[in-house]
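fwd from M.: "can u put these together and see what the complex looks like"

so here's what she sent:
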Amino acid sequence: MKILVVDDFSTMRRIIKNLLRKLGYEQVDEAEDGAKALPMLHGGAYDFLITDLNMPGMSGLELLRAVRDDASLSKLPVLVVTADANREQIVEAAQAGVNGYVVKPFTAAVLQEKIEQIFANRTKPAPRESGGL
Amino acid sequence: MSQSFLSEEDAELREFFIEDASELLAEVRQVLANLLRGEVADGGMQSVRRAFHNLKGASMSLPGCDSLEGFIRLAESLATALEQGVIAANPEVLTLLDEAASAIQSMLAEHGNEPRLPLLPNHLLRALMYCQDRLVGIDASLDSVQTPVSLDEPLRQFRAAK
């Protein structure tokens, strides 16, 4: 599975990549914001997107909306990462079609659980509302 | 969680964090120095808040950094209140944030490789907590155009008394 990790803080990208490596995901690329991520997503044949919400330039929410509005990317599973369990932000992300969210700090096991949940939900019949949360 | 050593992977991550954090904190201090000189730039306080937010997110994800996380959480809260105009960007408050950034820089430079990071200076922690307490009493949502509250004099008096 090919994964793109988007976060403006490189330490955080490194932390998430390490967790993914522990889970056996070796094909992991990174981008520092939504604006850099979008062209990578178009040309990279990614299977999964993990993005921070709070980023300068194009935020995680804007990136999510851009992905959902793009016919070639609209089905891409997206997990958002946030440092605060900010209800409004999470609701906004849900309305924009996010598949799941995870609040920092999180372990490799939690990340694995989120990824499995997202892929399990995608194999079920289409939900009436945005699923995965 | 107490620990006497960092794993090789955690030690590597910590090194990476120290380097990243020192760059970020240098930028924060530059923005604050500009603001203290009266040079107002668009997005200045937003970049300060984002920097503290990123440092918080990483420090809560790295082992042995819990003292740093709590300290940064308070600094981020103060920076958020400044960015939102809930409190006025007066010299005393800006100086406090600069001292907080400087203290984190020094602590990481001197103790960054220790398994468990030490506490940050108590006088700064108290001053940040004082601001946090004052913020709790201010409900900006009541009127979005209200005048920013000045913490300059109360904060000066609080710090002088301590």
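replying to her w this: The first helix of chain B runs from residue 8 to 36.
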